[in-house]
Amino acid sequence: MRGLIFTIILFVISVDCISQNNNALNKKTETLYNEAKSNAQAGDRGKAIALLNQVLKIDPQYYMAFFGLADIYHETKEDQLEKDALANGLSICKDRFPNGYKFLAELLYAEAAYTDALKNIDKYNSLKKPLTIEENRLLESCRFAVKAIESPVAFHPENAGNAINTSEDEYWPSLNGEANALVFTRLITQDKDGRKIAYPQEDFYVSRKDSSGWQKAVPLGPPVNTGENEGAQCISADGRLLFFTGCGRPDGLGSCDIYMSVRQKGKWSEPVNLGNPVNTSSWESQPSVSADGRLLYFTSNRKGGKGKMDIWRAEKLGVSPEGFPVYGKVINMESINTRGNELSPFIHADGKSLYFASDFWPGMGGKDLFVISLDSTKRSIPLNLGYPVNTNANEEGLVVEVSGDRAWYTANNNGFGGRDIFTFLLPEALKPQPVSWVKGTVINKKTRQLIFPEIVLNDLADNKLVQHLYPFENDGEFLFCLPSGHNYGLNLSKEGYLFHSENFNLLEANNRYQPLKLIIELDPIETGKTTILKNIFFETDSSSLKPESKGQLGEIVVFMKTNPGLVIEIGGHTDLQGSEEYNLILSRKRADAVVKSLVGSGVPSTRLKSKGYGFSVPVADNGDEQGRALNRRTEFKILENKLSK
User: Residue 287 and residue 17: Cα distance in Å, rounded?
Assistant: First the structure.
């Protein structure tokens, strides 16, 4: 803030300016000048302006009067008049008042005249060193903006259409992992008959996408929508969790708090306040949950931050009996936050790309959109999304689809009225890591009814847990996002049923599976039932188990301990390559290796059998690599259930 610059300018530089003036000031001019200063300090700006103009009429070279006028126009927010006064004063005074160049640069930068702004701040920089943090920020922003205008990014926004946008304001889009459900905020200002209502109402609406496109948005409805305002929401990738901001509520801890609702059996639960330490007596808002539900990012002005509004992160500590995740361990995102405002975080499904808005990092002016990689293996700084995604207006509230190809945001561009939701294809340089997803429905193979299993997704490289859904956390359906660069193992288990496993190998850095939709049939535990162990791996042409098999082997051990009456067979199978004898021996050795590992983990050898089948029982065509890969498998078969007798 400039403060009372008028007083500073007229008092501090008056002696220097008088000494540099070619025409000696007569008594009348000096009297008028001092009278203008007194009126300005007393708050009578109109009279001060008139007196300063009289001074300039008598002596057009009296540049302190121009700077005095500039200060008054700054206080009255008359930017063009302030800019003209500064330019006139500087043309006369030259380098005797360096701050004039800075003030002029600020005005030019705000109106997106970046080239002229850069010239003035560069001039200021040449006269005054070192620069303050704020001054250096202006210099860097001007430099960035000039380059950004010269090299614009590909940006072709499209209005989301009249199924979503109306003459009311629509904003703050949020998407599920499939990108076929869009939840957003709408500001209702009219009743059903088109008459203005006394108190505008913010509610959530949802539009769903089918083969014909986006369907007309409908209210999310109670208990999430209430007579109070709801806004700044995010929906989890699986569409099961909704986090949002509620302000001034009876159960609130501060001015605005973050609330959560869980969708169970097709209905949203009564929202609950997340409580401490996520919410405090300060302002908390704008939540964004990671695809695995483990991390919750949000904006707060609480104590302990680096600036005004900071981005914070909470970690999932567990799950309540009602199926609500419990968050704690709140930390400040120090590498992102500045002395200014950082807000509207969005964590992409890759778990590393964080998009956010800032008014402090170098940009085009106002709030700009940025992205930063949170990859712990390398340090990075925020990347401005560039021009014309960013302008001298405020941009915030951007979300990116799981695919990483398309972004959604809010703008006042030509639309249906007020703010509308738009979408655009992200330029390659701004895209996150490739991510796919797998969606599954779990049913009883016999009855075809939904069942609610325990579902575990692991990173097989180090057997690290990626996501864990308990039976009370799912309705027989799940959706997991799969960032590239990992080999995933999925295991489903339910008491009384044979477990099921899947493998998703995305180790190639840019490999991305096409989204998968699975119907997983769980067999009740019965003699003769078989399941393929899709996460048992061997070295090529060897019976040596790979480390990635550790998770699957552990799951078998747990299953055997949970079902003490079972006797099972581990069957080894190969593809058609090689001789029959070679493959028979290899398959037998591989089955033996699995049994040996299980015995070493405490499963009695009397409950385990092994058998090698070679290539005698194919499940796919051996004519291509995909079929051969399916034939190279290890199976788990129930031979006997002693407790069922």
Answer: 55
